[in-house]
Amino acid sequence: MVSAKGLEGIIATESSISSIIDDQLTYVGYTIDDLAENSSFEEVVYLLWNLKLPTKSELDEFKAELAAEMELPEAVIEHLRSYDLSTVHPMAALRSAVSILGLHDEEADVMDEAANKRKAIRLQAKVATIVTAFGRIRKGKDPIKPKKNLSYAANFLYMLNGEEPQDTEEEAINKALILHADHELNASTFTARVCVATLSDIYSGITAAIGALKGPLHGGANERVMEMLTEIGEEENAIPYIKEKFANKEKIMGMGHRVYKNGDPRAKYLKEMSKELTKITGQSKWYNMSVKIEDFIKEEKGLPANVDFYSASVYHSLGIDHDLFTPIFATSRMAGWLAHILEQFDNNRLIRPRAEYVGPQTQQYVSIENR
Ligand SMILES: CC(=O)SCCNC(=O)CCNC(=O)[C@H](O)C(C)(C)COP(=O)(O)OP(=O)(O)OC[C@H]1O[C@@H](n2cnc3c(N)ncnc32)[C@H](O)[C@@H]1OP(=O)(O)O
Ligand SMILES: O=C([O-])CC(=O)C(=O)O
């Protein structure tokens, strides 16, 4: 038996959704560069689920389907209100809310392809509403209903802040959503596939995936990056701070990647946005500090910044609460999780690897009185 810690380098499935080849990321063969520069998040979701770009009328219809499903059942809002709002992390709230959403979907356990696509639309539409509703409720504000004429990105900011975003803000969120939408067999997507490969339902697969994304070695890193930048405080403290982390053998959040060893192709876009947005807000120090850290770690350890590194200062510049950074990632990655779940159902086989047993051999059972 072959054993690879963390399943590094193991090909666990075939997929037609996204690929990472020679540090280039593509969605269905379209480079992330083309998509980030030219596309909309809704178009990318359509692409990931249908493996083709939509025509104008297909895209309009898809947008209308999403817009029609954005509102939440009252029971989910009531549930969000029932948490201990001072301690619950928004990723935990999202994980629970998605699970509750399944209880209010009559088709939750209907497994045919058409029903699964309808559930995918509901989940993608409602995730933005859950994240923003929770973001408001915990501040004592009422959730805001989405507007049908706004894009997905604009609606996200509108439902969060109660006012329609500026073009630069909408563009930044749209691009961030595109860049995070799918990433081959990352840990949360793998989790989703493992879950539904038992022929469990989509809500279970997504709930499991949210749990996996929450961890700081995966999507949870973006919040930790901002925590680190805040702790550093000023540019001149950055290098001494990182040196101390190295001395204590601590990892630097937002740095390193299991697959990309020469650089994450998504990071440059977030870096550009961070430069632009921090300048607009008069807080270039977050960008400058991030560049210092990135350069130092590249030099010292050969580790590149990953997608989570510059997204922290981007979201901070947009005035978003730091613990909502990972829920934004989840809002985007919902598209990839759902694409992979649909693909898994399409050609399913139970996912069940083996473990190499390294425990004690041939022990004699001793009765409890004699132990
Ligand atoms: C969207 C995403 O999920 S992107 C990743 C987000 N996660 C983070 O940013 C957390 C910080 N980064 C990390 O923990 C890692 O780089 C991971 C989890 C992303 C990838 O990890 P792996 O491929 O398992 O690499 P692993 O953790 O084994 O590290 C290999 C070596 O590089 C070092 N290393 C890797 N990342 C870092 C880091 N961020 N800071 C310091 N050292 C690091 C490890 O300490 C290890 O060194 P060693 O061989 O001397 O023990
Ligand atoms: O692929 C990974 O391991 C992590 C990652 O970058 C992502 O999920 O976007």
UniProtKB/TrEMBL annotation:
<dbReference type="InterPro" id="IPR016143">
    <property type="entry name" value="Citrate_synth-like_sm_a-sub"/>
</dbReference>
<dbReference type="InterPro" id="IPR024176">
    <property type="entry name" value="Citrate_synthase_bac-typ"/>
</dbReference>
<comment type="pathway">
    <text>Carbohydrate metabolism; tricarboxylic acid cycle; isocitrate from oxaloacetate: step 1/2.</text>
</comment>
<dbReference type="GO" id="GO:0005829">
    <property type="term" value="C:cytosol"/>
</dbReference>
<dbReference type="GO" id="GO:0005975">
    <property type="term" value="P:carbohydrate metabolic process"/>
</dbReference>
<dbReference type="GO" id="GO:0036440">
    <property type="term" value="F:citrate synthase activity"/>
</dbReference>
<comment type="similarity">
    <text>Belongs to the citrate synthase family.</text>
</comment>
<dbReference type="InterPro" id="IPR016142">
    <property type="entry name" value="Citrate_synth-like_lrg_a-sub"/>
</dbReference>
<dbReference type="InterPro" id="IPR002020">
    <property type="entry name" value="Citrate_synthase"/>
</dbReference>
<dbReference type="Pfam" id="PF00285">
    <property type="entry name" value="Citrate_synt"/>
</dbReference>
<keyword id="KW-0816">Tricarboxylic acid cycle</keyword>
<dbReference type="GO" id="GO:0006099">
    <property type="term" value="P:tricarboxylic acid cycle"/>
</dbReference>
<keyword id="KW-0808">Transferase</keyword>
<dbReference type="InterPro" id="IPR036969">
    <property type="entry name" value="Citrate_synthase_sf"/>
</dbReference>
<protein>
    <recommendedName>
        <fullName>Citrate synthase</fullName>
    </recommendedName>
</protein>
<feature type="active site">
    <location>
        <position position="308"/>
    </location>
</feature>
<dbReference type="InterPro" id="IPR011278">
    <property type="entry name" value="2-MeCitrate/Citrate_synth_II"/>
</dbReference>
<feature type="active site">
    <location>
        <position position="257"/>
    </location>
</feature>
